[in-house]
């Protein structure tokens, strides 16, 4: 794969900079000939690359690799297309409040009592979040040791499909003016760039209020080089030791379809062939540990055979701290998600959303998790 091809995937590394960031799922769903339900998959198959997780990392990665290799993308959820709770801005929060087993949002509560959700849908968290799009800071690029020119080309590759300039309504305009009044300056206008002060950032919602997610980036794929399987839950990565090599080598995965039937996918013989785990900050270490890679004491405590002792797998996980202030209004306020941001010199970000979704009257019957003006009692 070309160097530019790899840098197109930088978008995935920056997903953390998109506060509740999201991408794709308009009503004009693409006709992906390579997308299938996992129940139709053969029990045994071979690929050059196996990508586990079809979110903000897996989709652009699989699309790029498909131009020079035969790629399998495994996603445990379904398609975002055709679901108005995902695709429509006015329905924001509906998926987060859906606690059914087939919901694209999987509710969980951390050990310290914080409500959150894991995505289980093609497009990942970009199907659930508030859709703010921004680039990383130049300082982050320098510290990572990346080529700034290639990084910018990668951004442009993504932005052609999934990033838009918002048209500010009354609420977002008031947020902009308020930030400037309290001294979050200068005003930088509309820009995708990360600049201290107040700016209007990008949005993954188009002018018609349709969400665009990472699944849209599969439009860049070579349809002859890609297979996407939905409702395919990977159970285990398969490892082996060959010759005198002291470290294990991944050569396949075991996954189950929606009916519970087991399938196996193996790597073809090839020096560069790989299994790539892009199942999210929680799902990736979870799968590694289920496969025997992780802290040896923890694996043995759960009777998991140890393949490789990696003490840092699953450790040091934390989320960005967030403090929310709910402002009641005596009159209805239009629905708007994150469009204006105040980037302070001390590293915090001030953003705001508006509309009935966030009102206390709604949450008596529907709990929107982190977006609800209520606390969750610790168990």
Automatic annotation (TrEMBL):
Transmembrane segments: none annotated. It comes from the Eukaryota. The keyword Cell inner membrane does not apply. GO terms for molecular function: flavin adenine dinucleotide binding; oxidoreductase activity, acting on CH-OH group of donors. Pfam families: GMC_oxred_N. Residues 280-294 form the Glucose-methanol-choline oxidoreductase N-terminal domain. The keyword Signal applies. Residues 1-25 form the signal peptide. Its cofactor is FAD. Keywords: FAD, Flavoprotein, Signal. PANTHER family: OS04G0573100 PROTEIN, OSJNBA0019K04.7 PROTEIN. This is Protein HOTHEAD-like. It comes from Gossypium australe.
